[in-house]
Amino acid sequence: MGLKSKLKVEDRGFLAASAFHIIVGVLCLAILVTVDLGLIHVGLIGVISLATGYGLFRRRVWAVWSMFVAAFMATVFALSTIYYTMGSDVLLDAAMIIYTLLTWIFTIYVASKRDRLAF
Q1: Is residue 5 domain-resident?
Q2: Which residues of 21-57 are buried (b: 16+ CB within 10 A; e: fewer)?
Q3: Among residues 3, 26, 36, 59, which one has the fewest Cβ atoms lying within 10 Å of its Cβ?
Q4: Phi then psi for 11, rounded to 5 degrees?
Q5: Residues 6+ apart with CB under 8 A from 92
């Protein structure tokens, strides 16, 4: 029995979006714990990303709204990080740009297919 049948994957796009948000959530919480507990905004992004990943995996309709919140928070976080580290850390700037792009790509994808979500 393959992994696809065990997970009951009908749409790889939803699985990719779910995996992306779960990975981002885990990374944000790991950064919160290892770097500085004062980075509450990173922890909040992590918690919302984990909830969004769970909602997408379980195909909950509230995941669309959670995803929009996560996308706006990610955009503000990434743009402020890019602004304050402009040129001093090119790798961080590139990572923030890729993070923002992937967040919005998955948000647009899920929003366009929101009729496949259930209550």
Answers
A1: no
A2: bbebbeebbeebeeeeeeeeebbbbbebbbbbbbbbb
A3: 3
A4: -135, 120
A5: 81, 85
Residue 45 lies in a domain: yes
pLDDT digits (tens, 9 = 90+) for 29-57: 999 999 988 889 999 999 999 999 999 99
Domains in the chain, number: 1
Instruction: Note the pLDDT of residue 45.
Output: 95
pLDDT digits (tens, 9 = 90+) for 83-94: 988 878 899 899
Decide: helix, strand or coil at residue 93: helix
2 in a domain, yes or no?
no
3-state secondary structure of 96: helix
**Alpha carbon of 114 to those of 5, 11, 39, 62, 117: distances in Å?**
22, 12, 32, 10, 6
Nearest to 98 by CA among 7, 27, 29: 27
